[in-house]
Amino acid sequence: MKIGMVMPVELGQAGEPEWILRFARAAESLGFHEVSAVEHSVVISQTTSTYPYSPTGKSHLPDDCSLPDPLELLSYLAGATTTLGLATGVLVLPNHNPVVLAKRLATLDRLSGGRLRICLGLGWMREEVEACGGDFDRRGKTADEAIAVMRALWAGTDPEGVSFDGDHYSFRGAHSWPKPAREHRVPLYVGGHSKAAARRAGRLGDGFQPLGLGGDDLAAAVAVMREAATGAGRDPQEVSLVLGAGLHRLDEAKLDWARSLGSDRILVSASGRADSLDKVIDEMAECSARLGLV
Question: 245 pairs with which residues across the strands?
Answer without folding.
Answer: 268
